[in-house]
Write a structure and sequence with these properties.
Elements lengths: L5 E2 L4 H6 L12 E2 L23 E6 L2 E7 L4 H13 L7 E5 L3 E4 L21 E2 L13 E4 L12 E2 L3 E4 L6 H12 L12 H9 L12 E7 L1 H8 L16 E5 L2
């Protein structure tokens, strides 16, 4: 029996207060995945080539996006590349699109799915341990892993295959500093999070979804084709946030 869907869910304070731009997500990037006990291991990802400085091209009908995968999140990087090399993502769709929030894909059940199919519960049968890194924020174009909610997933392990790419909207510095203060509340000075000047400028000019920072593992960043995220984010959707016309993806490694 299918378990609940993986959704991406915003922090409670953000949902209640809204953002400084007036944009408020309908839910989060959690997945509707089944609860899975097994996690990816070195045995799961074996015979892999050197994956450092890896890049993947995501092809859609709107154009191509090039994503750079972070070496600092090696388990997510290696798992993503394993699936790309296997052709796992080819012909899947972005099954959940919320304008000014994010675009989500990676459910194997979405391949050739009927228009009325309930999607978001598929995966490879394992999760990936969380790899939070304060250096990587939910800027526009960030690649992050969907997951189940904290109630059933207190360790915040990631889906084995479902991911989302941030679109978001411009965010003023005052809101970012407020989120930073809330996140650091009760923590000692050696364990605090701070947005860099570069992050503050990027969020202000390009946008993002900073209320998700520290909640989901960010493991890559779109470095070419950022406008494709906007094109996908603008498509017409049905109830449940699935695009009316399927947005199909293909993926392959590329050298940069």
């Amino acid at each position: 029996m299918k378990s609940p869907i993986l959704l991406i869910i915003g922090a409670l304070s953000y949902v209640i207060l809204g953002s400084s731009t007036g944009c408020q997500p309908k839910s989060t990037p959690l997945e509707n995945l089944p609860q899975e006990d097994s996690q990816v291991t070195k045995e799961t990802i074996k015979d892999m080539p050197d994956n450092s400085n890896a890049h993947v091209k995501i092809t859609t009908k709107f154009g191509d996006m090039i994503v750079e995968l972070f070496d600092e999140t090696p388990q997510h990087r290696d798992n993503f590349l394993k699936l790309v090399d296997e052709g796992y993502y080819n012909d899947l769709i972005f099954h959940r699109v919320i304008k000014n929030f994010m675009i989500q894909g990676g459910d194997p059940d979405s391949r050739g799915a009927a228009p009325n199919a309930r999607l978001g519960a598929g995966g490879p049968g394992y999760t990936v341990p969380a790899e939070f890194n304060n250096a990587f924020t939910h800027k526009k174009g960030a690649l992050a892993a969907a997951r189940q909610g904290d109630q059933v997933n207190p360790k915040r392990a990631s889906s084995g295959s479902q991911f989302y790419i941030v679109q978001g909207a411009p965010v003023q510095e005052a809101m970012l500093l407020n989120l930073e203060m809330r996140r650091n509340y009760g923590k000692d000075s050696t364990n605090q999070f701070h947005y860099s000047p570069e992050d503050l400028e990027f969020f202000k000019t390009q946008g993002g979804t900073p209320h998700l920072d520290g909640e989901y593992t960010v493991f890559g960043q779109i470095i070419e084709g950022l406008s494709i995220v906007d094109s996908i984010g603008a498509v017409r959707t049905m109830p449940g946030d699935r695009p009316v016309e399927d947005v199909i993806m293909k993926m392959e490694r590329v050298k940069k």
